[in-house]
Amino acid sequence: MKKILTFVMVSALCITMLTAASSAEKLYNDFKTAVDNGDTTTAMKKYSELESRVDKERSSAISSIEKAVSKNNSELYYSSLTDLRNLNSYKITKDLNDKFLAAAINSDDSTATKWLYDNSQYYEPKLTFSFSNSSRGIVREYSSAISTKPGTEITLPTSSDLGINTLLNGQLAGWGITKDKVTYKPGETIAMPNTDQTLYAIFTNGVTFKDDVSGLDTFITAESGDEITVPALENDGMIFEGWYDSNSGLYISPTEDSWTVKGSGASFSALWKALDIQTLSTGAYSTNALPTQTQIPLTVTIKNSGSENITGVKYELYTDDPNITLIDNTAYSRVVRSGASVEFGGIKLVAAAGAAGKTIAINVRITDDSNTVFSTTFNVTFK
Q: What span, in angstroms and rounded, lies between the C-alpha atoms of 352 and 2?
């Protein structure tokens, strides 16, 4: 009776091991069947189960190899090594990739295409931008491509992104799925397509004026030699410096109200000079309760909020109150770049006893190498 029981237990164990060993293969076959049937939902489910099973069987095979090595069992070693190698064959092949993609696209299943991108080495949809660039009488054809997960937001290139010389090539009107009609505007955001696609740059003659401050964005259709009206701009606290096309180098001064079109056109951006004097810090001391007869550290924070770099910057703090002494109250910066913030520090303020109970104005004056003046006043109060 004991012998029969032992035989039954050993037989059951063998059947369990055989079932486990074959389960990865079965799941892989189930996955292939679902793909052949165009059932992407079942295919994704079976592949997820397959990956979990493969991980388990890989760990088991590695454990068997280690055991075989420790016991010098060559038969077990090579058998387990074969099992381990076989697990690497349960992959998405090129044929399965193409079948799955066709099923996903025909069923309009965006989840399935994203899944395929994450799991298949054969699925890398490309979006190609095709454009030409003229220089010195030579037309050169260019293309650039991106590859990313379907549905990802893609911002389409502008003339500046491409480095297109608008004087020679004209204005980038947009991008087309055909070569003669605009489908999307420059800078527009679209979803990454499911399959390889090419967008063609389409140009037209004319001039664009764009200003991020006022929101102006206008296009004027024009030919070489046409005279067009130049938009006039103004903004409180900012100095308008004119219009500039970074691709062609064309410039229109702020005093000009008209401009004669050159070549195929231009794409102008507004130039602004602006320097914000933002804060006056008094270190650990409160600006509303400063002590007298004490060195108080001062730091001024400044930001270039314009579109142009400001060069040759001179800083000065001063006051008309005789009770205040400012130490090391001047400084110089070679350049404050557009969008950058800087601190003018190292200044010390010393107030005589006569400043007690008073609110006193501290003036900040900044000039650049073109003698543009930026200034403001901060009020501080002494105990």
A: 107
Name the helix (H) or strand (E) containing 132: strand 126-135
pLDDT in tens, 254-306: 999 999 999 888 889 999 999 999 999 999 999 999 999 999 999 999 999 99
Residue 311 CA to residue 194 CA, distance in Å, equals 49
- Under the phi-then-psi rule, with left for phi > 0, alpha for psi from -120 to 50, and beta for the rest, what region is 282? alpha
Run of H or E including 20:
helix 2-36
DSSP assignment of 74-131 equals HHHHHHHHHHHHHHTT-S--HHHHHHHHHHHHHTT-HHHHHHHHHH-TT---EEEEEE
> In b/e form, how buried is each residue of 136-149, taking b as 16+ CB within 10 angstroms?
eeeeeeeeeeeeee
Type of residue found at 163: G
- What pLDDT, in 10s, does the model give residues 109-136? 899 999 999 999 999 999 999 987 655 5
Is the separation of the CB atoms in 54 and 25 below 8 Å?
no
- Local structure of 318: helix, strand or coil: strand
Own/partner long-range contacts of 37-46 (Cβ < 8 Å, ≥24 apart)? 38/99, 38/102, 38/103, 38/106, 38/107, 39/103, 40/100, 40/103, 40/104, 40/107, 40/109, 40/112, 40/115, 41/112, 43/100, 44/112, 44/115
Q: Which residues of 234-248 are buried (b: 16+ CB within 10 A; e: fewer)?
A: eeeebbbbbbbbebb
Cα 155 to Cα 32, 184, 190, 358: the distances in Å are 37, 10, 7, 56
* Tokens encoding 273: 């000079």
Q: Are 184 and 156 in contact (CB under 8 A)?
A: yes
> Which residues have CB under 8 Å from 269's CB, separation 6+?
210, 211, 212, 243, 244, 245, 246, 307
Give the position of tokens 């059947």. 15
Is the Cβ–Cβ distance between 245 and 164 less than 8 Å?
no
Name the residue among 265, 264, 300, 293 with its Cα closest to residue 279. 300
Residue 313 and residue 109: Cα distance in Å, rounded?
Answer: 59
